[in-house]
Batch of 2 targets.
Target 1
Amino acid sequence: MTRSSSIVGVGATPYYQRGATVARTTMDLLIEAIRNAVDDAGLQLADIDGFALYSGGYDTALLAQTLGLRELRFSAAITGTGGGSAGAVGLAGMAVDSGAAEVVVTAIAVQQRRRMGAAFSPSGGSGPYAGTPTAESDFSVPSGLLSPGQSFAMLAQRHMHVYGTTREHFASVAITTRRHAQTRQSALMRDELTLESYLASRMIADPLCLYDFCLESEGAVAVVTTTDRRARELAHRPVRILASAHGGTGSWGKALTWMNMPADSFVTSGHQSLAQRLWRESGLSASDVDVALLYDHFTPMVLMQLEDYGFCGPGEGGPYMADGGGAIDGNGTPVNPHGGNLSEAYILGMTHVREAVEQLRGNAVNQVDGAEVALVTGGPAPLPSSNLLLGVER
Amino acid sequence: MSEPIDHVAPFSVADLAELHVDSWTAPFWRATREERLVGCACGRCGTFRMPGPICPVCGSTDVIWRPLSGQGTVFSYTVVRHAVIPQVRGQLPYVIAVIDLAGAPGLRLIANLWNVAVDDLRIGMPVEVHWDHISTDVCIPRFVPLDPEE
Ligand SMILES: [Zn+2]
């Protein structure tokens, strides 16, 4: 498929701690981010003619009416949670490439309300992802498997067993990311994180401790995608969509609640086939990536994505990060210079898209010198997950 | 480091063990009530799978429920030390494990490990089923370390 679309606008609300947006509605936050993104592009709200969303989408009817669209031409959403973030922008690109729509918005708003930890709970949970009990969840809930953190802990534990990955390796992800966040004003967590304080923190689901988990935060982020042709007439250097994939192998499926994926997949982020599709479509590889925005809901998943995308070999993610491979001033591809979900804010992955755009425009807070290609991933999760490769006109 | 914990608590919370069976999962839960562990296998090609309407390998909807020995090995695990909902607060810490079931290649069960010390936990440890009768209608399989002497 020939890609001919670019991101031309990015906008956000401020990022807030959990509970801080309680007087506002999700739609209110969403509209603020979309308005900022459209302003950034130099477009009008009425120019929007499509939505490419994820995480269940929003009420398209209300959005279209509220924003004053002249004509809505496209509305679709990738299901799932943060797994669809990067791919939703890819979906916007597909809508534009196909001619279905010309100005497509991808946006997410997050309000925690209740603790995310209650994710799969049948009776105690009413968080944003509270699961309805089903015949399928009968195989996880009665064992007290109630939250994503517990599932990811079991992937991490096996990765440690198979590859000799250590807690210090996980710590290196949290510490590197925190160091990046220290210079970024929008980051919610900017105190220095040391190995000592990491190791002294509360264990949540062994081997994952407090600092292995992303933040619980609130806010909204939106981007605007349009044709390359129109992009060249707008305010900013266009950020081209080079490739994107969403989905994953069927056997990964309900990986995180059933854990029946093949043994060799178990120690991955489930992104191997997604990575192959991205590299095949773009003709590029990990060595061409100048900055990697990897979905960091849990530190071990950053290591596994580094492996799945080929920044290092299988099982080498821990040493790669611990040796400074992901640091902005390190010896590899910088990972999450904005502080990521772990230290900046957890807005279901769209902060990573925002950072990629800023990096490729050359105005990021922690700018990677000469960044021309950025990888963005959606959260390793049950299918579909996703990715996005962005670049500048050379 | 976090406080050392020698033994983990058995996990058994009645209001999390309410079942919502469908026609595909009912045979599994009927068998557990009789303290039998069974695995869902394809009636045509024999592939084990989680219960559901179709074999992902050959597409057959035929199912055979194979009796299993109740033994297995720990494929992975986590020691849960944080209560994500109030109901489990009194149960901490508890172990959730992924169990590779003996005699059912490729089939794994999520289950609690009971009667185990944290220091003894390891991937690959042999375990066997232990029946937790939550109510007259519901029995949840848990696993305990397999005594190598027996
Ligand atoms: Zn079959």
Target 2
Amino acid sequence: MSSTTLSPPLAEPGEATRPGPSKGRRRGRGKESATALVMFLPAAVLILTFLIIPIILTFILAFTNTRLISPEPGRFIGLENFSNLFTDDTFWASLRNTIIFTVVIVPVQSAIALGVALLVNTRTRGTTFFRTVYFLPVVTSIVVVSMLWMFMYQKDGLINTMLARIGIAGPDWLGDPNWSLFAIIVMSIWQAMGFHMIIWLSGLQTIPAELYEAASLDGATRWQQFVHVTWPGLRPTAIFILITITIAAFGLFSQVNIMTQGGPLGSTTTLVFMAVRSGFERQQTGYASAISLVFFVLVLIVTVIQMLLTREKSEKKGARS
Amino acid sequence: MKKSTRVAAVSVMTAAALLGLAGCAKGGASGDAASGTITLWTHNAGNEAELAAIQKIVDDFNASQEGHTVSLQAFPQESYNESVTAAAASKKLPCILDIDGPNVPSWAWAGYLAPIDELTDRLADFLPSTVGTYEDKTYSYGFYDVALTMVTRKSTLDDNGIRVPTPDKPWTKDEFDHALETLKATGSYAYPADFATSSTGEWYPYAYSPFLQSAGGDLIDRTTYESADGVLNGPEALEWANWFQGLVSNGYIAAKSGTDQTADFINGKTAIMYAGSWAAEKVRDAFGDDALFLPSVDLGQGPKIGGGSWQWGMSSGCSDPEGALAYLEFAAQDEYVASVSEATGTIPATDAAAELVPGYEPGGVNDVFRQFSKANAVVRPVTPGYPFISSAFAEATQQLLDGADPQKTLDQAVKDIDANQKQNAYQG
């Protein structure tokens, strides 16, 4: 066997049809899978350490009273964490805010991102400039973005000064419970929009130009072109964007942590923020694990629903064609 | 060697090295036992002045005798507590470490720290707020403390006919409210006062619970440390909550202040600033003799301010407690107390050290902060449950500033704190 090739040479065409496995092939297979195993090992160690074990630990810790700092090991307390959680007003506020945030941000952000992608997909001067401008917030750290917007949202900040010019007295955006979540939603849409614009853009560019050519020969208007050519061509992209935005929206944390700390009056607290506060600030590891578990189940349900819905569609489509 | 085998070998070695590294990261931190050196951990990497002052003590100690050698390891403050918690979990704590004052009871209870009662006699000279105790045992001492103060200008008070308070006769609640009302009426300020409400975290209990204590309430009942019922939601606490909420609803302070209260004060946006002694230098640079540093408001029980800053202690797993104690005793000398507090611009912990630090000698410009600290400092509750109490109080106070119902908010905080104290069977 050659010592220069990594994988053994493929079996001769004739070999495969011969009854019974050949000696060479069996040896080759064993080597191949050993190599595969070795190559898989580093990834496996990382996934195990940073994903699988923490998830298992969360499941276990959620039913104990484990503390971050304690001379005594955690004790099994059954469902106490969960019964505390479900009677905790902050939990329901967190759940409500997380859901509102997600329900608003998924359609609005993806729609705006699509609109912007369509705009910068045209062949005019300066599209590269605009693409860069729209993408800039994505590469800026969310911490920096949050602090900048905190200044803009101040009562006498940039936004209210501009509103005052046209005769509107702006509210105290982050200090007013009626506006705080809205303010965070607007900022979040602006920040992450560029990322999804790029994905829409890549989707748009996979649509063959001949289709548009044919459509315009048939006399289709721009809108008809969008509905019958662009949108169907974007389906896989749309599914990807829907799922990524939903999961990102559920994990809302950094903006809240920096801008409002969950306030005023719990109007911006979220599940992840509550889990972090309980786990690290209040040192209730067990309770934080229970919150994380509820969060995990929630994301799991939503993801499974989305997967079922989107799979059904692509299967139908496959059957039709 | 066949290439596939070589690849396999390399991969296995890489994986082993990775795991080994992870092991090293855990194990490398200590090494006290074998080498004969005592490791010292400090939080002030990044704070060059303070770190240099500590390094000087370590060098002097190493030069002073033969038996023990101390080696210093500095961490950035942001990750310091996590490092200690992680090291404690894997039993790799260094012999000597520094601790943020409010954490001392929690860490002592958790068994991280060993008592240093041998030093009690020496520590009798220290400001009470700089010595960390838990259950009648001494666990730590600090070189310095800081003081909270009301900062304003003499001209501002004189122009508006407001009395200048003294340490013996601070502003009463009515006087203070009246002063704020007068200043607001001038229309010259965005807000008459600035309480740094935009700060978060430990600032809330550190800065605002002294008002609660001045009104007669507290964060928890300090005789048993079992319950906050009656002290955090009793009539005195309610009075505090109403007063504090009124500061915002009357337009005396901002519910969310600007990000730099000292700059706002110097620029004339606010007339009175509730700040720490750390702001003194800048204010004095701007206003010279016109600057006033006044005691906090007396809401009934005399003015109170928060006490307790970074302190030094010995870990319970220390393999050379004798050496560690020798170092702690050596470092507690007045000249070192003076050099560290001078480097950090803070209040020296002993009278003798204060004589050595310019400005803190009796009658010096900064002596007033030392007087405040001596007379008014209240340490935060000495219970392992403090981190929870701190967070619950911060949340409740934030809600009060945002206009929540005082009684309901305080009741909720009491309920949470009591449940946590009970679930963990914390004692005082």
